[in-house]
Design brief:
The complex is a heterodimer of chains A (195) and B (299). In chain A, the strands form two sheets. Chain A has a five-stranded mixed beta barrel with strand order 2-3-6-7-9. A two-stranded antiparallel ribbon of chain A has the order 4-5. Chain A has a single domain, classed as Alpha-Beta Barrel (fumarase). Chain A has helices at 12-16, 35-43, 89-94, 112-118, 130-136, 175-194, and strands at 3-8, 23-33, 56-59, 63-66, 72-76, 100-103, 121-124, 137-144, 153-168. By secondary structure, chain A is an alpha/beta fold. Chain A starts with a strand and ends with a helix. Chain B has two domains: 4-26 and 69-153 and 280-296, 2-Layer Sandwich (60s Ribosomal Protein L30, Chain: A), CATH 3.30.1330; 155-276, no CATH class. Chain B is 40% helix and 22% strand. The two termini of chain B are 32 Å apart. With 299 residues, chain B is α+β, with helices and mostly antiparallel strands. Chain B has eight helices and nine strands. The chains are: A alpha/beta (195), B alpha+beta (299). The interface between A and B is large, with 48 and 51 residues.
Chain lengths: 195, 299
């Protein structure tokens, strides 16, 4: 279990070096994305108005306040459940060059293949810890597709964003699957006898 | 418009609702803080510890900066206990709770989550058709009003499960269903949280009871000793699964299990599970007949 400081955007080699169970802190920039954003890109075939190349994408729907100059001030930026958006993993990495997907609860197991094949990781954030995460977002630098508010395409400058846990790596391993398999084994071998 | 007393009371209830909604999102109850502290003390798994430490830091950051604990402002659900002599009709109480929710959302501002279920069109103010939802309890020989606000996020609400077991399945199947539901939910509902279980009644009542159970403070037990025993048993079983904080492994899968029960039909054996995340937001206001409001974080 190693700790990594990564600056995003990054390259494929940087995320292939991560192992399930490692922890990560992010510097640089991350991109906020959600259900409606990805439905627009992939189901409605619209080209995203900012590059996702090498990006770390956060599953989020921010709570913001619009300032007089048109910019947005973060009020509460946290993370949503990722499993709903699992099907977008392959095109995000293969076609847009994204390298990390961040959220809570994990992607469905079928995302492991694309992560391995195209070079990507799933980084688990501590769900619900929005107060802390908001303080790690230094600035909302760019907002596209404001009509989808709050499910726009967001670009955030971050400082010490994390901790994140490498929950699904680019080598085919998922901590969620490990934990589920162990829990099922415990239910079958010991817990069911106690019921 | 009603009498002067009614107008004063209606305004007091509206103000209380607006304050409760925002306050509950920022300041989690002390029983929950204690339970999260105890979880960190006993957690031995490295990743689990790191997650619990981050949760503690997050609660502290929210306290210091007057911030929302979690970004999901939820669907506001209110539990209203109305004394039979409280001088404002429930129709007006409901109207005030709705207006308070709307005002808090627009004034703070809070993220609005409510959309039309079919068109997905947002309402923008966290109210909508039948939302916020108000549960009612009427109390004889009393002139007060208690309002509990439980704004529950969707990550945990999506992990709600109902099964109509048959009587021959017995309590064994109830336990197995709870176990399979929580293990299957994994990290999605932001564990470690409170598992609410409703048993008996009808399909709708079982889920209502499960939801009522998650709104109880951690450390409270069902007054029926058989039900309280089931709570302890389920809590131990769930923590032995090793699902852990955020579903990434550990000793703490749940902080508490609360079971509520109702009598049921001879051929029914319903069980409902409603999960509440670690950020189990909850706040209460006590309103007197004269309109004085006492806020209570721990009820």
């Amino acid at each position: 279990m190693a700790h990594h400081e990564l600056t995003f955007p990054t390259d494929e080699a940087a995320v292939r070096a991560l192992e399930a169970g490692d922890t990560v802190t992010i510097q640089g920039h991350i991109i906020g994305i959600r259900d409606a954003t990805q439905i627009r890109i992939f189901d409605q075939g619209r080209e995203p108005p900012m590059s996702l190349e090498g990006g770390a994408l956060l599953h989020t729907a921010p709570n913001v306040r619009k300032l007089a100059d048109g910019r947005y001030e973060p009020l509460s930026i946290g993370t949503t459940t990722s499993a709903r958006m699992s099907r977008f993993t392959e095109p995000l990495i293969r076609d847009h060059g994204a390298r990390a997907i961040m959220g809570k609860g994990g992607l469905l197991p079928e995302a492991l293949g694309p992560l391995q094949e195209h070079g990507g990781v799933y980084l688990a954030i501590v769900g619900g810890a929005a107060a802390l995460q908001t303080t790690q977002i230094v600035e909302i630098e760019q907002v596209e597709w404001e009509d989808l508010m709050p499910e726009c395409l967001w670009r955030f400058r971050v400082c010490d964003f994390g901790p994140l846990i490498v929950a699904m790596d680019a080598h085919g391993r998922s901590l969620y699957e490990d934990v589920q398999a162990e829990a099922r084994r415990r239910i079958d071998e010991t817990l069911s006898a106690k019921i | 418009m009603g009498t002067a007393t009614e107008r004063t009371l209606r305004q007091a209830v509206e103000d209380a609702a607006a304050e409760l909604y925002v306050w509950s999102l920022k300041d989690i109850p002390s029983d929950l803080r204690d339970a999260l502290g105890a979880a960190l003390e006993r957690e031995t798994h490295k990743v689990g510890r790191r997650i619990l430490e981050t949760i503690h830091t997050n609660v502290a950051v929210a306290d210091e900066g007057n911030r929302l604990v979690c970004q999901d402002t939820g669907i506001a659900v209110y539990y209203a206990r109305v004394g039979e002599r409280f001088p404002l009709h429930p129709a007006r109480i409901e109207e005030a709770l709705r207006e308070g929710t709307r005002r808090a959302t627009l004034d703070h501002p809070l993220r609005s989550n409510t959309v039309h279920t079919l068109t997905r069109k947002p309402t923008g103010d966290n109210t909508g058709h039948r939302i916020p939802h108000v549960h009612w309890e009427f109390v004889p020989d009393w002139d007060g009003l208690d309002i509990k606000c439980v704004p529950k996020g969707s990550g945990s609400e999506n992990m709600s499960f109902l099964k109509m077991l048959v009587p021959a399945d017995g309590v064994k199947a109830v336990k197995r269903f709870v176990l399979d539901s929580i293990v299957g939910a994994g990290g999605k509902p932001c564990p470690p949280g409170i598992v609410g279980v409703g048993i008996g009644g009808s399909a709708d009542l079982a889920m209502h009871l499960a939801k009522e159970a998650i709104a109880r403070p951690v450390g409270t037990h069902n007054p029926d000793p058989d039900v309280a025993r089931l709570e302890r048993e389920l809590c131990d079983l769930l923590n032995e699964t090793g699902v852990g904080p955020m579903g990434l492994g550990g000793d703490t899968t749940v902080l508490s299990v609360h079971v509520e029960q109702a009598h049921t039909h001879i051929t029914l054996n319903p069980v409902a599970v409603n999960y509440q995340c670690w950020a189990a937001r909850r706040a209460t206001a006590h309103v007197s007949a004269g309109g004085e409001v006492a806020m209570d974080r721990d009820a």
